[in-house]
C-alpha cells in the first residue's frame, strides 16, 4: 500500500490516493459492448442539445426585432449586472492602505537612539566580604542642553550605586551623575555629557491614551547583550492603581498609578521607553507581574505622572511634596479591642488612618494633631488606608495649601485646619 500524486489518473506514480499492487480486474466483453452502446446514445443527446441551443441564440435577435419577445435585446450595451447589484463606474475606485508594520518601524527609528543602557556599580563591603556587584537597566534621554544630556530611569535601577554608567546605542560608555531619585514613583534622573548624544526623545500625552492602542517597549532586557530590543503590544488599561510597599513592612504605602501593557517587559527593560505609534514616549517602563501563571502584564509610569517628577528631580534633586508630618498606620491593621478601647472609637468607624507619631516643627504639630488621633477624612474625602492620605497630598495638593482634617480623638469627632509645609523625610 502506498500514496501517489493525482496529475495523471492512469499513472500510479502521480495519482493521489491509495493504490494496490494487485492487477486491475477486466470486465467481460458483453458488458463492455453494452456500455459502449449507452455511450453512443449519450453522445447523440448531447449533440442535439448543443445544436438546439445554437438555433435559439441565433434566432433571438430576429424574434426581438419582430416584437415577438417580451423584452428587448440591446447588442451595443454590455451587461453590468452582477448579483443584482449595479456597478457604478462614474468615479474611479480608491484603495486605502494601512501599513502598520511601516508605522511601527518608523516610530522605533524615531526614538530608539534615545533609549540607553544604565549600569549600576556597587562596591563590595570589606566587613561582610561582599564582592562588587553590577546591575543593568535602561533609560531615556529626554533633554539636551548646555553641553549636558538628561536621562530618566527607575529609582530601583540606580539605587545603592557607587558608580553609574550610561551606554549609548553606538556602544559608547559615558559616566553619569545622579541628580535625584524618588522612591515613591520609582523615578530617577541622570546627567551625562552630550558629546555623543544625537537623539532626544519626545514625550507624548498619556492622558489621551485609550485601551487597545498600539504600544511599543524599547529597552535592554537582560543587559547589553540584548540592547535596543523592541517588543510590540497594546495598551491593556490606561488607569491601574498598584499597591506598593516602600518600607518592606508588608503593608502598602503607596498606590502607583500606571499604564498596563502586554508588550513584553523583562528584567533590564526597567527605565526604558513605552512609545506610541507616533514615536512619542508615553510611559517609563517600571515593573511586571512575574508569576508562573501570569503572562503579558507589565506596567509603565505614564508621562502625565512622570513629567512633573522629572522636573523636580532635575531642578531640586528631590520631589517637592506637601506633608502633614505624621507617622500613620491604617486603622484596618489595628486589633479590634484597641479600636474601641485604646482609641475609644465608635463601633461604626472601620476605616481611617491612625497617627502613630508627630514630627517636631511639622505642620501637624503646629496645628495640634496628636498621637492616636484617627483621621477619617481630608477636605471631605474619605480615607480607607494610609495610601489614600499620601495619594491625596501628593497628587491633589501642593506646599502652602490649607486642608481640613476630620478626625476622632477620644471618641469625639472634630475638624482641624492644617497648612501643608515642605516635605520631611518619608
TrEMBL record:
Protein's name according to its UniProt entry: Trypsin-like peptidase domain-containing protein
CDD domains according to UniProt: cpPDZ_BsHtra-like (cd06781)
Location of the PDZ domain: 313-411
Disordered: annotated span: 1-39
Biased composition annotated in UniProt, kind: Polar residues: 7-19
Pfam families the UniProt entry points to: PDZ_2, Trypsin_2
TM helices/strands, residue ranges: 41-69
UniProt family annotation: Belongs to the peptidase S1C family.
Keywords associated with the record: Hydrolase, Membrane, Protease, Serine protease, Transmembrane, Transmembrane helix
